[in-house]
Amino acid sequence: MSTTSSNSLNSLLKMADALTGVKVLEVSRVLLSAANVIDKEIALRNLLTDGGRSPSARSKLATELFGAELPKEALAILGQAVESRWAFASELVDALEKAGYRAMFALAESESVLDRVEDEIFKFARVVAQNGQLQMALTNPAQSSTAKAGLVKNLLGNNAHPYTLEVLSHVASNLRGRRTDRVFEEVADLAAARRERLRAKLRVAIGLDDAQRTRLSNALTKIYNKPIHLDEVIDTTVMGGIEVRIADDVIDGTIAGRLRQARHRVAG
């Protein structure tokens, strides 16, 4: 994402983070619904991101199309989204989705369930990453969006929080050709970023004990100057050691990684 698009997205996320009150859930749903409509209507998407039209004209068009009777908070975020500059028209859709998710996370935090929702989303992302059949089902063009949302609900049943179900069902219904495992992880990262913390994805052959997790968390917090939430995945292929992935940074301290490096040096 370009600097311009990134700045536009951050502005929307700040607006979503600031939401309070009884209409936050409705605002979240409005933003996700608007993202769906704009994604499906290419001509509309081009109009709402047309640099040849003034920002106010684009905002007026969005209000007329989606309805002035919507919650004022939803209209404010939608208006800001279409007034902003995007390197690609498709980024408007992605940004509205992320703002919708963050609004849901704002509500979850206000109800003291954000930790649970965040963990449930990440665990589902891991299940998807490790299950090829599930990935095929979620990306099968013959399956409708409703069927994919139903698949998520059937898998999670009544065990997941309703906010988790709503977010994951929307993600599953709107993959738009993106990698399934990465999309779900990105949504979990959005939840973590809501509280200005980072998620560290750990790959280990054997689970860390509490003391090891504390030392690692403290060390990473010093490096990144932000609280770190550790998500642990047991993977026997690493053979030993640990791999840490934070955003685009990868620290590979696994035995398998060291062997790969050694082979590269010998081959080079």
State the secondary-structure class.
alpha+beta
Rg from Cα: 20 Å
N/C terminus separation: 34 Å
Major sheet strand order: 2-1-3-4
What's the number of domains? 3
Element-level helix/strand string: HHHHHHHHHHHEHEEEH
List unreliable stretches of 5+ residues.
Answer: none
Number of helices: 13
Q: Can you give the helix content as a percent range?
A: 55-70%
Kindly state the number of beta strands: 4
Quaternary state, please?
single chain
Beta-strand percentage? 5-15%
Globally, the shape reads globular
Please name the defining characteristics of this protein.
268 residues, alpha+beta, Peroxidase, domain 1, 3 domains, four-stranded mixed sheet, 4 strands, 65% helix, 9% strand
Protein model, in words:
With 268 residues, the chain is an alpha+beta fold. The protein folds into three domains: 1-111; 113-195, Peroxidase, domain 1; 198-267, no CATH class. Helices cover 65% and strands 9% of the residues. It is built from 13 helices and four strands. Strands 2-1-3-4 form a four-stranded mixed beta sheet, sandwiched between helices. Helix 5 (72-83) runs antiparallel to helix 6 (90-110).
